[in-house]
Amino acid sequence: MNNTPPAVSAKGGFAGPAERAVLIAEQITKKFAGVTALADVSFDLRAGEIHALMGENGAGKSTLMKILSGVYSDYEGLLLLDGVPVHFASVREAENAGIAIIHQELNLVPELTVAENIFLGREPRFAGMFINRGLAARRTKTLLTRLGIDIDPDARVSSLRIGERQLVEIAKALSVNARILFMDEPTSALSPAECERLFVIIRQLAADGVAIVYISHRLEEVMALSDRVTVFRDGQHVWTRKRGDFNDAAIITAMVGRELLQSKAHSPRLGDVVLSARNLSLSVPRRHGWTDVLRDVSFDLRSGEILGIGGLLGSGRTEIFETIFGSARGRRSGQLKVAGKHVDVRSPVDAKRLGIGLVSEDRKAQGLHIHEAITENVALPLVGRLSRFGLRSFEKEAALARNAVRSLGVRCSGIEQLAGTLSGGNQQKIVIGKWLATAPIILLLDEPTRGIDVGAKREIYELVFALAGQGMAIAIVSSELPELLYLSDRIIVMSEGRLAGTLSHAEATEERIMQMAAPQGGLKRRATP
User: Fold this and answer.
1) Which CATH class is domain 21-256?
2) In the predicted model, what is the mean pLDDT of the chain?
3) N or C of the chain: less Cβ packing under 10 Å?
4) Residue 360 backbone dihedrals phi, psi, to 5 degrees
5) CA dist 200 to 50, 182, 313, 468, Å?
6) What is the value of pTM for the model shown?
7) What is the per-residue pLDDT across 152-165, written as a single tens digit (0 to 9) for each?
8) Model pLDDT for residues 269-313, shown as the tens digit of each residue
9) What DSSP assignment string belongs to 160-194?
10) At the top level of CATH, which class does the domain 272-355+441-529 belong to?
11) How much is the average pLDDT of 117-141?
């Protein structure tokens, strides 16, 4: 099994672009409430190139992209498009100039269909008056087919999983026929197979002359795709280098200002079985009946163990966690034991009482109250315990928040800072801290490093190792196979809702996981009884 920390591998690329800049940003400065997000930054983008933009969360990458795509119009500096000065007052103006952006945070309307989201504000119409929904659906189907995505254009976005919604965002951006495309963490929720499919599309777009800015924390993607790399740190430009003049170590050092220490391999000290699942099954309602998303899944988890759960998007990985945590919607069956006792987990309240914590895959929608302070977020699972005679103890809540910030190394202005204003890595630490405050014996981590930078990622890894070393039982779902291999003592692999097999630390490789995860035509749709 590979003990090398993830995000250090590289694979081949393709020929570099022409030396013609289509978009130039000169001496851009942007401030928020007196805080400088970008300081005198310059950047250029050439036709047909894939230009990676790297940096830790808060380095200014997304801020620059939002300026270049018309989201922010109040800034200092100069933008040139095809050599002509421009100043976009809105996203629509940038789109009309051929610029589109795929945001890191999903920007879809859950109650609208896939087609309605893709053409929102640009709906095809009959005689310029009535919306032509059929034409929108057909155009959407063409876009999705181009991306190799099997999603119903008439499906409501609220019915899609996070990874599927990410794919819809990509299709939405491509629907404007952009010649300049900004991609902010486009693969953060995709499976390896979906990532490869997207890379094919990205390379084809570049070959067709589209200029692409690619923001990602996954170094292996940057090494595979990029013609040039620009690194930002603390709102400033560090360097820009072309293919062949950089490697992953140089990028990491430029991002964080130092070389990251290699983490020591985890040496598990396994204790008793604290979680035992037998024949877990879950069926969910669909338009044409009930569909099995889990069938007869059984496994054990010991104290001090880090159990990885691998598989493709939609294989049932997240549903295992939701079933254990009592948050799954649908028909559930099977048996659970916690600390040797049979339990019936009907809700997250039951799970919390039993010592189970869940860090969900979508921290913004499910893990945080982004408009509340750090204090309220950390204290949320313990409000009842911290209250007396129905009155909140603000002093106890503040102490709990200060302890989480200090012990997890959260970078913030104070415990009253709003969670939504923190960087992705610090938001994730708050979500983890919230559950650690409940003193769980079992911690379920669903995509724990999705959308966070390499420095914060390593800090999360060290935290996971430390918690396991203290005897906590940990299960992890991750779409990043290097991450799964690096963290896990043992890996169970899911395929179409079934347990395809179990791999020991020594047996597990990326190839074996992917072979086991490949669909075999297992689960079937069942008619409504």
Assistant:
1) alpha beta
2) 83
3) C
4) -75, 165
5) 13, 16, 19, 39
6) 0.60
7) 999 999 888 777 88
8) 899 999 999 999 999 887 667 888 899 999 999 999 999 999 887
9) S-HHHHHHHHHHHHHTT--SEEEEESTTTT--HHH
10) alpha beta
11) 83
